[in-house]
User: Fold these one by one.
Assistant:
Number 1:
Amino acid sequence: MSGGLRLWLSRLGAMTLKELKQLSRDPILLVVIVYFFTADIYIAGAGVHMDLNNAPIAVMDHDRSAASRELIYRFRPPYFRLVREPQSIREAVRLLDEGKVLAVLDIPAHFQRDLLAGRQTVVQMQVDASNAMLGTLVSTYAGRIVARYGFERAKMHLGMGKAQLQAIPVVENRHRVYYNPNQSDPWFMAISEMLTVITMLSLMLPAAAAVREKERGTIEQLAVSPLSPAQILLPKVLAMGLAVLVGAAASLFLVIQAVFHVPIKGSSMLFFIMTALYVFATSGLGLFIATLSRNLGQVVMLVILIMMPLLLLSGAWTPPEAMPAFLRQAMHVSPLFYFTEMSYAILLKGAGLGVLWRLMLELALLGSLVFAFGVWRFRRQFG
Amino acid sequence: MGQATLVEASAAAPPMVRVRGFVKRYRRQVAVEGVDLTVRRGEIYGLIGPDGAGKSSLMKAVAGVLSFEGGGLEVFGHRVDSEASAEGIKARIGFMPQGLGLNLYAELSVEENIDFFAQLRELSAGVLAERKQKLLAMTRLAQFRDRPMKHLSGGMKQKLGLICTLIHGPDLVILDEPTTGVDPVSRRDFWAILAELLRSQGVTALVSTAYMDEAARFHRLSLMYQGRVLAAGEPEAILEQAPGSVVSVEVEPQIAALRRLGTSFSQVEGIGPRVRVFVPDAPPEAAAERVGATLAGFRLKDLKAGEAELEDAFIALLEKRRLTRISPPASDASYVEGKWGRFDPGAPGGASDGASHGGTGDPVVSIEARGLVRDFGAFRAVDRVSFQVRAGEIFGLLGANGAGKTTVIKMLTGILPPTEGEGAVAGADMRRAGQAIKARIGYMSQAFSLYQDLTVLENIRLYARIYAVPHRHLRARIDWVVEMAGLAGVTGRLTGRLPMGIRQRLALGCALVHQPRVLFLDEPTSGVDPVGRRRFWEILIQLSRAERVSILVTTHYMSEAEHCDHLALMYAGRIIADASPEAMKADLQATAGQLLEVASDRPLVALERLQRGGYAGVALFGRRVHLLARDVGAAIPAIRRELTAAGLREISVTPRAPTLEDVFVYRIMAMERQAREGIQ
């Protein structure tokens, strides 16, 4: 029955065109989409680093010797930045309290004398660990600097030159870094942010489009027309999905590839097909949100409510291995988990369908379930 | 002179509100331009006009919550020109903004709402308890104290709003369209309560409305249109500014008669089988003669001539100032054959064949409901509703909010399955062929559900594609809609930027783009000005008479119900009356008696006397009192005697033809009485 199918497609086309026109005439929505897919991803990539960067420290040098100056000299940019030399222990603690410095290095008197005499000596490092990540970085970096200095002083003390270095039994740790050879944080952060943005917009845009029809009463007009619920809902998903895909392409090629020089190892076609599948799955959730909301404000609230667990359970922010076992199981109901796994695999590792088919199938299954649920809710409300 | 006695002994006092040359602009848009008015102590002053007339802006400024660009404003004799001066008057003002219950809190109960407003005004507990008691009793809300506001009916919300506005005992209340969206029974109730409150508390009121037929509720009023005052004064004085008479006659063939009359008169309407003509500058007898002469050669029946109403005067005044043109040039000889070209260009689509396509004049049933029932849980929203709508008939479904009108429409349009009963629409069975029905009908809701961010043409095209108008007819259908709805020149404009009247006609055009034989209209004219409303009805009459489209319409406007060929009145899910408007009025006179209008120099005193005198349906209409009397011959002298004994003068008692509103109110009140007695 090709006539019937043609009519069905014609109606679908008319409605999709309508959605696109409405989107193109909503300046605020357009600004949101453009911002999130470009500037937001750039800020995430350029601004967030897992390295220690210019951490402010204070130094109390009670020795004031060549040895202490040499140690202090090693706390320098780009990792550390010496900002103060407090006169008393009380002042040092105050600086920590006020957050002016992240650490205080305390070098005792007779530091140089003890070293020259071949005696052990101690320096103290007081670290602000209110930001756990930063605190850990500071103490790790500082520990490495002090250890290296100590090792070199020990060698000097034993009278060893460069040549004798081979003779010491030292285990050297050699890394071989795959997929991100320079361990560049922008790569990870920018891709992760893009996945977050795709999730948020594919939840929000179809929900907003559906709830706007509710707010203006046009949904009633559509309900008495010969359109089926699928013909009313699918165009929203199609139009908004298209907008998200175009945005994702812009951020992948114009920001992630052009600005951060991420080599796209795998097939970008495969990435977009997978993204389309993912957008379809999340828009089902979006339609579900639309059935619960009466206005745009409620849509935004519910999107945030759903976004948070999706993100936390996705592995985008915390690796699955670090989670308790029951949460690790829960991750399998978050579509973003599949999306994250597959995105990194395609973009950085160059994985193909041969590796990914299983994840893809699971995502398709989950997506169909979620979408069917959204349509069912909608049909019950307006069918 | 009547005013002085009505507003007892306070005419010498300074006016409550004095507005001079008031101007309000929103950026470039002028909302109010040079308005003058004076509100005297103790009166109900009305602002009447359609949406966008500037009523709300003016009222907000008087309430001290809106700054303005020009002119002077004095309230209680104080100049209001700054935020600080506005603060000084607010304690003595009660302001109720537009919208059903918009100033109230949906989740709070009736009592909690009142208490909250009292606390805002820092009322002492004793005063609050006493006033609350009294106001709840007067508004008959006492038994609903604990009910959350969101579960109140529209009329009850407005009464609660009124209590909250009056709780601090203001000297002046400002009520912005308190009766919009409220059914006629609740409207009448609201006015009665307002009049009573004003009398007992000595409060002055500034009230706005979009209903022209409420003008009689005001002592004095300003008729507003597009930011200007068209006329001001007592209702009678305004009518005198555009003198004329209304002639109504049953005529065959109606469409040709409308065309003939359109060449000589500017205000011509088809109402049921009758035509209604406003004849300017003529007393009733002369007007009847002129209409009779114009219609020479037609079959005329039951020609009546009488006083004009405010809406006629309003439109006549607009015409005088050349602000509008009502009728299109009536030289078009093809009125009957199809004023806008053929309704069916090309082959008839799937929509127009089948049982709905009537032969020559035989009454084919287009909509039939047989014992429709719909339950929502334990609540029966629609109870055994049956009716028939014939091809080419305009059928009106009337009823208060929640009477079940919309549920009936939802079942007939196939959105909602009935619990019991059956029906057929446009030849398709309602229970089995819901999808076929959807393709064959046109539907227009009260929200004019259009896409505001699409252009006029894009909206028409979208609906044409949704309703599968064949590609080869698309151009012809779009042209037809543009022509019919008078949209030439705005087709490229965004819908959201168009005035209400045009949006309404566009919505109608979209509902008609696929040539449906059956049209459902759910409160299609809310918020549209009288000129737009008349133009809309002109189109509907044309559709039903010339194209034989069946139209089912629900409305709150009783003046609109007069246009219908047949009416069904719904109450609590059931149809309690089903007849033509004429038959309903005749029935009212037969069962409840003749409507009498009583005029006197002190109407408030007359109202109280007549209410205590035990007459039926006593209600105040501005300066006149209406009541129903079975034995007119005995009642007229009895009323005269009673009022004279009370010291009233200038008494006149005249029989009047009842309006549909009288019918509606009488019927509903009778049902409510029955329901109460059933409980007891």
Number 2:
Amino acid sequence: MSTLLEVNNLKTHFGNKRRVVKAIDGIDFKIKKGETVALVGESGCGKSMTSLSIMGLVPAPEGRIVDGEILLEGVDLVGLPEKRMYGIRGKEIAMIFQEPMTSLNPVLTIGDQLTSVIIHHLKVGKKEAENRAVEMLDLVGFSDSRKLLKDYPHRLSGGMRQRVMIAMAMSCNPKLLIADEPTTALDVTIQAQVLELMKKISKEFSTSILLITHDLGVVSELAERVIVMYAGQIVEIADIDDLFKSPFHPYTVGLIESVPKIEGEIERLYSIPGNVPAPGEVIQGCKFAARCSKVFDRCRKEMPTLRKMDESRSVRCFLYDDEEAE
Amino acid sequence: MSFLEQKAMVTEPFIVEENHNYVHESIWRLMFRKFMANKLAVIGAFLMIIIIGSALFAPWLAPQDPSKQVLLDKLSPPGEKYILGADILGRDTLSRLLYGARISLLVGFASVAGSIFIGTAVGAIAGYYGGTLDAVLMRIVDAVISFPSLFLLITLVTIFEPSVFTLIGVFAVFGWTGTARLVRGEFLSLRSSEFVLAAKTLGIRSSRIIFSHILPNAMGPIIVSATLGVGGVILAEAALSYLGLGIQPPTPSWGNMLQSAQNPQIMLGAWWYPLFPGFMILITVLAFNFIGDGLRDAFDPKISE
């Protein structure tokens, strides 16, 4: 499989000259064609900012990409003129959001919203765009799609709206779909439907999916590879089975421990002690050191690098450093 | 309860969810229903239709030529010949009221249309783009608001020949600041809403996002402020005309019909003569305010039906 998206040393910072918040502090990863990659981590670790950076929608002027490149099939999206980004957003990369209740415009019909995207990107007439819209709505499981076109979003339930969002995002057949917490706001049965739908789509259209979530259940359901982020950095990259079987980084271990298990009786649910460092906090050494159960002296002095363990696995921790292993 | 009825009750929520009863009721229809539920607003709308209708059909409704003077009949009380009496030059008050409505409403609507246009454009740009542009535009708004507008209006009307069009222009140029602030506020909150971000991720251009995505969502407050604005302008026009700086006689306007009320002889001796134009101004402004309040409630999603 060839590489679709390659992010190299991406740094997105916020603030002004006096105070800089490093929302993303040098991340590297690749997404192959047709692959589903999950990006996990606690709130505030830079997951959503990663997706906005890829989209070129980092809120200006406070935030900006200061370094690095984002290669979509070899074309660097960083610094690409806005005019060309209009052609990439929605066409090459599309996105769905956490809150289906608010991500559709309340005053426009479903049809208006869908067809305007199709007309813009595929350069087709109104009639053709409508047919395409109906086709997409059928695909996401609506039975009466043509009538739905004339409907307003407030008449739809959360699950239906999320399906409309998926139809809209997929309408121009993007190569990459970024799903930012797509099931967080939905109830469990609808979550299953939406996940099923996303699986179907990635298979049928061989669309790559970047799944941003903090829900490891969703990760295990959908993803092939997992990227764990902490405080703006990647701390571990692993294939899905390896990650759940033998997590390397203490943070990953903590995340998996925190998921409630069905077997056995537990007095108290495990949680990682402490909090994510406040944005803008300057930390010497490993950013996770203050919360780590296996912390030792070196962690507080030096920053570990992201070490490649084998073909598919990298981890940012001194525990797996050759020097320390001795 | 029979088994069938029970079954129907149990399955009902699923029917609503899955088969989705396709009643294409737009939000506008819903708002119309909310508006109609507000009695004062309906009364206001009813009065408005009558006032606008009589202004439009003034040539057919007016019993006499509004400029025809019969000096012998000056200041005649309401009666058979002059339903609402005659003025100091013996002109029929009713006819002058009907023709005056045309001028007052024209000034009201046209200047509000102008100020809404300027205000929306400035507010939308300031709110959507933010930053330095926003700061500059809002300081201009602050400056315009700080002008003592009545004196400036008087000065301007004195410099330019006072005519209907100067009045409209002057009111438009000084009336847009409120709308600009309002629209800016709406855009500021809407531009960071999730559906705008979603539209951006789909590659929709800024101009389209401003006009087709954000502006319709801000329409409610704009319409409300326009409605209330018309009442305000009609009052301001009346005030200027009363001072003799607005619409110039012989063209009748409600304001300049009141002018002669400055004379105590008329005030005491022929009270009916200033009463009617004053009453019309009151009714019209009140009607606009009722409609404005009704629209405000109709557009407010927090107030349920």
